[in-house]
Amino acid sequence: MIEKPPHLILAPIRGITDCHFRSIFQRHFPGFDSALAPFVNPQRHSSFQPKQLKDLLPEENQEMVVVPQFLHTDPEDFLILADRLRDLGYTQVNWNLGCPAHMVTKKKRGSGLLPHPELILAFLDQVMPRLPMRLSIKTRLGLETKEELLHLLPRLNDYPLEEIIIHGRLGRQMYRGEADREAFGLCLEQSRHSIVYNGDINSVQIFRDLQEQFPGIHRWMIGRGALANPFLPGEIKGVKISDRLQVLEHFHRELYTCYQEILAGPTHLLGRMKQLWIYLSASFPPQHKTWKKIKKCHTEAQYQQVIETLFAANK
Fold first, then answer.
1. Reading across the β-sheet that carries 34-36, which strands appear in turn?
2. 120: Cβ–Cβ under 8 A, 6 or more apart, which residues?
3. pLDDT number for residue 44
4. Same domain flag for 166 and 32
5. Does 204 share its domain with 89?
6. Strand duo 65-67 + 195-198: pairing
7. Are residue 150 and residue 198 in the same domain, yes or no?
8. Secondary structure string (H, E, C) spanning 192-253
């Protein structure tokens, strides 16, 4: 019997995994099968012009299959955006019930909605009969306790969801601590839907351990682990790349040049690149010293000198 290959999904990381990053990453590093885009900011009664949807325009997403993500809690605004994306050719959207940011949760959005299951079900009751495409959900174990999701999942079984992506942390944890595998296993027992595992896939060994622990899972979402080691998705798929440093250097050069052309000035450019290096510095040990040098850069010239020295020192 031929083992079904894992389907790997690039996680949405706001401020990093935009359409330019996704496309350039896919050109340099194998392994990902699709990506979930960072959520679209909710707009009331908006027709969503191309400028507002630039991250999802088909011409900007030729390299990778992408699923848009919504943060909306107003059914009518959700449906307006869904109609707009259907016109762009999308056939699936994702509803974000996982964002842990306080500015989001305090508005009862993202994981801030998980303590309110009646609001979630009322939203789905209004949206799903009129939604012109398939719907998936990305969630956490809860905002404050894992019982929030455990109690919600059986009630979601009555809805024709495409899949549920579960990140094994609480919203209040942000990204602290470890993903709770035991709680994820309990979630599997409560749901009849296809489930995607998300959380702390940082190495091939961790991935293999998770496969053994959850043999029924075939779709996996990887975020920070792939930013720290962009070769990880390919390694999971058994792809070997010999000159890794050269590939990293070419990737960085293309990404930097792209943002240099489209972002307004060095402050925005360096800010965007530093967001990536928070994670990518793990590929250049000692990680804390690499990040410290990049963090101190205030001009493009300083940044380029640090990066040039960094790559030269690792050859």
1. 65-67, 34-36, 7-10, 219-222, 195-198, 164-170, 134-142, 92-97, 69-70
2. 97, 113, 114, 152
3. 75
4. yes
5. yes
6. unpaired
7. yes
8. CCCEEEECCCCCHHHHHHHHHHCCCCCEEEECHHHHHCCCHHHHHCCCCCCCHHHHHHHHHH
Domain assignment present for 157: yes
The number of distinct structural domains making up the chain is: 2
d(CA 26, CA 22): 6
Quote the tokens at residue 64: 């990778």
Compute how many other C-beta atoms are within 10 angstroms of the C-beta atom of residue 160.
10
| φ, ψ (nearest 5 deg) of residue 138 | -110, 130
C-alpha distances out from residue 77 to 37, 67, 82, 138, Å: 19, 18, 9, 19
Q: Is residue 2 part of a domain?
A: no
Averaged in consecutive runs of 10 residues, what is the pLDDT profile of the chain (315 residues)?
Answer: 83 97 98 97 73 90 96 95 94 98 96 98 98 97 98 98 98 96 98 98 98 97 98 96 95 98 94 98 95 96 97 91
pLDDT score recorded for residue 181? 98
Q: If residue 8 lies in a helix (H) or strand (E), which one and from where to where?
A: strand 7-10
Do 261 and 177 belong to one domain? no
